[in-house]
Fold:
Amino acid sequence: MIDLGAAPLDEALIAERVRPLFSRALAPGSPIYLANHSLGRPPDRAAEDVAQAMETWYRDMGEAWGPWLAAREKFRALTAQLVGAPGADSIVPKTSAAQGLRAVLNTHDSRIRVVATDAEFDSLDFVLRVYRERGRIDLTMVPPRAEALIAALAPRCDLIVASTVLFRSGEVVAGVDEVVRRGRACGAKVLLDVYHHAGVLPLDLAALDADFAVGGSYKYTRGGPGACWLYVHPRHHALRTLDTGWFAKEAPFSYARPDPPRFASGGDAWLESTPPVLAPVQALAGLEFTLDVGVERLRAFHLAQKQRFAAMLEDRGIRVEGAGPDYGAFVTFAHAKAPRLAEQLQQRGVKTDARGDRLRLCADLLNTEAELGATADALRATT
Structure:
């Protein structure tokens, strides 16, 4: 638990109370890290939690499943709190967003029509293309605009797949609530990719009334790879997917084998087989940190920080997109050789990344004003 009081976040407060929690990620000699939109920097406690989970294994062997499953349930509860899910059992742990999408697609026994945007991250885009190639779905791809998604609903649509914040530009997609409303009105279910939304912007999936959502802790909640999840609205808890396993059984440790199979109640019916245990453990510290500070408070700080950073760049003749409130956590710089530019910045001690022709730069509350100024100088020197 971190107590930052009620005052707005500023660099002095962060230096005193926040940065000490990240001493390993901020070790002396570390590069300036502006890829926080990709792999988030973990709190020191994440390593301690994983070490404790391993120690439980060494010490208790089979009895370790008690604390391991308790950690999984805590991961589900914290994630539900973060995204506004009505209950922890609506959060189904997954190792990737793609695994969540496949679970939803595999609730259908016959070919369905899917409408998706052409701006989805590869994890979802690739799965959709493979399902189309195998004849499992008919796939229509449209620009990432609410009006385009709504127009594509006719003559029939079974599933809409769309991001709420775009991975390439950081743009917040307007009108998602209307897409959900219109989709459901015509009988389509809606799956939202909120990976670049959760932990950055306030999110209330229950109020949005989305059928499904996918996300994870890799980025903004600092939980590393493998700690992902599928949100299932309670009205779909009784749907059955082929992506199942014995942990989805009613009373799995009774080892009963009723025929036909009987499933657990609620969202637990969407669980699979023996789960990975360390991924939820490594994600707990970052989730707790995010919730303790508060997403709205983080958003206010990061929005002001983005705008200051954009102004620094503007002073050096570099114009970026994404500094305003209609964007998520990062700014982008359009450049024909953006991947090469990212490599050159890394050689100068600044870690960023590129997607296509956009260099992505994402500061967070661990970055100092001095680091942003140094990054602006380095970018000016390489362009």
Observations:
- The radius of gyration is 22 Å.
- The chain has a mean pLDDT of 97.
- Residues 295-315 form the longest helix (21 residues).
- Residues 32 and 350 are 5 Å apart (CA to CA).
